[in-house]
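Appendix B. One record, verbatim.
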Amino acid sequence: MIYIMLRFSLTISFSVLIYFLLVAPVSAKEPRFGERVDRGLLEHSDLDEASGIAASRKNPGVLWSHNDSGDSNRIFALNTAGKHLGIFAIAGATARDWEDIAVGPGPVEGESYIYIGDIGDNEGHFDLKHIYRIPEPLIDANGSPIDSTLASAEIISFRYPDGNRDAETLMVDPLTHDLYVVTKRETNVIVYRAPYPQSTTSAITLEHVATLNFSLAVGGDISPSGLEILIKSYTHIYYWRRTLSQELGQALAQPPEVLPYVAELQGEAVCWQADSMGYYTVSEELGGIQAHLYFYSRLAPTSVGQRDPIVPGFQLEQNYPNPFPQSGSASADNPSTVIRYSLSQPAFVKLSLYDPRGRRVDTLTDNFRFPGQYSLEYRPMGLESGVYFYRLQVSTSVGTFNQVRKLTLTK
């Protein structure tokens, strides 16, 4: 049962109701990105063949990178100006042909993990490929460089369902925890999925989920919201939008947009900024030309790409308590959770609950609302324990905007 407590007192205006009934909301503008900005040289000379890049979720202003094949089992930390922050050896890992790096969720709820893809195979010799997963360490974006060893790396070993392949793109889906590998050399590159939870005790076989109409995919990333996707070739950066109801493969079946990109010397890496307000690329050092870090800024706010979108006057708060036990469980001292949101102008509001696969499992409210603060006491019934997502969709005369947050239901 849902209890709605209105925290304001307003007289309903008939003219306002007529206005919103007759004027259909329009979609928010497509995201736009600016020209390339040179953020500076990569300070550490050993990072000269950067093959992957990822933005930290735990350390603001920190990026992770690594070299192509031929280096040791180490990753580099740098800030968003290219300043060197440290070198971290990955204990138990072998650097055969590391080609991409990603940051995202994993087996421990609330923890951020680094995923390193030992997925390169130029000649197609190796049946098994490996992805190393390790919790993100803490590091200061303005601190002095540190050298350390990260222990207890988990190894996710996999093979393809249809023969050995070379790949340079690894992505982790923040919504489902699934891993995605995109091949490089086919005329139409192939996207494979490793569904969560991925085994670390025996080799898994990937699932073919999409085929893309271009070749030479060399890097990619999924935004922290899970709703925007980047895949890079040597000459282009391709972009897809995704809805909460879509599997990633379904989103990739749509024609992509082409985003701004200036081709670099052996540029093989791309990642979203942690707040999704732009994306980074990095070059390799070739012919005496040092490697640079580049940034392409988002020029217009979007409700798609951020955990907390820039939509003035609309706010969805984190539910409390979280996690919480559902009604009827043995540990249910407090079997409900409270979700609050606020509006600064009249709007049609829909608040829905989704499972990790993007399927809507409950609608909490679907009504016209005047400005004010709202609070819902939500008592889920009949849902399995696990992670869910609740989305606030706000439609006004100038656009439709969304905010998404995560809640955890326990037994």
